[in-house]
Amino acid sequence: MKFQLFQVLALATVAAALPSAQKLDRPLKPPLKPLVINTLSTFAPSGRLGSSPYSFFNVSFTDPEFSNTTVQCNTQWTLAEGDTVWTRKNTDCLIDPKSKRVGEWSFQLLKPTASGEGASLLNNFMLHLRHDWSSGVHVATQKFNFDGERNIGGMCSASGTCQFGLWEGVERPYLVPQFKLER
Ligand SMILES: *[C@@H]1O[C@H](CO)[C@@H](O)[C@H](O)[C@H]1NC(C)=O
Ligand SMILES: *[C@@H]1O[C@H](CO)[C@@H](O)[C@H](O)[C@H]1NC(C)=O
């Protein structure tokens, strides 16, 4: 009796595991050429009276999948915007007028962990870039981590302003994987 129950449970376990196993076995789409990050900078103001209240995040990258189109994505915010800066969709991405224009770029800054512990818009965040275009397909980078352990360097000055960016020592070109998704 016990043995039969075990068999039933084992079969149920196999059946439950099957769908996800099949997903993993699905043939992978051919990889896209990674994005090349040209510059990435973050800034936080001193907060002193009379100084600019804006923090900002700027990234510029080149997309070898689209004739090396160069894109500059910026966003800025004030302290009052608080947590809304995380996860919001930023669409202020300018495609270099000299480049071929294909679709629209947008990006999100995400907390690097579920708990959000240690997250910082200056030097500990995930960048999620997204590229939509008319054929109904979009390309997104993986949620790519930027932090002081791997790729971000910078400092806060005595006046209280902070400035960080892609650490000078990182390998160049600095590549960020991207993958294609059907809508
Ligand atoms: C894009 O840039 C890379 C690196 O500079 C170069 O090897 C490649 O030929 C360029 N592709 C196009 C389509 O311009
Ligand atoms: C970053 O973008 C802001 C606008 O959001 C701009 O004022 C600033 O000059 C830019 N800084 C860099 C280093 O590109």
Labels describing this entry:
1 helix, 183 residues, AA1-like domain-containing protein, mainly beta, signal, globular, seven-stranded antiparallel beta sheet, binds 2-acetamido-2-deoxy-beta-D-glucopyranose, five-stranded antiparallel beta sheet, single chain
Could you please describe the fold and organization of this structure?
This is AA1-like domain-containing protein. Residues 1-17 form the signal peptide. The chain is mainly β. The protein has one domain (37-181). The protein contains 1 helix and 12 strands. Strands 1, 2, 3, 4, 9, 10 and 11 form a 7-stranded antiparallel beta sheet that branches. Strands 5, 6, 7, 8 and 12 form a 5-stranded antiparallel beta sheet that branches. A hairpin with a 3-residue loop joins strand 6 and strand 7. The structure holds 2-acetamido-2-deoxy-beta-D-glucopyranose (2 copies).
How are the SSEs ordered, and which strands pair?
Layout: H1 2-25, E1 35-44, E2 55-63, E3 69-77, E4 93-95, E5 104-110, E6 124-133, E7 137-141, E8 144-147, E9 152-156, E10 162-166, E11 174-176, E12 178-182
Antiparallel strand pairs: 1-2, 1-10, 1-11, 2-3, 3-4, 5-6, 6-7, 6-8, 7-12, 9-10
The structure holds 2-acetamido-2-deoxy-beta-D-glucopyranose (2 copies).
The site of one 2-acetamido-2-deoxy-beta-D-glucopyranose (NAG) has 3 residues, from loops.
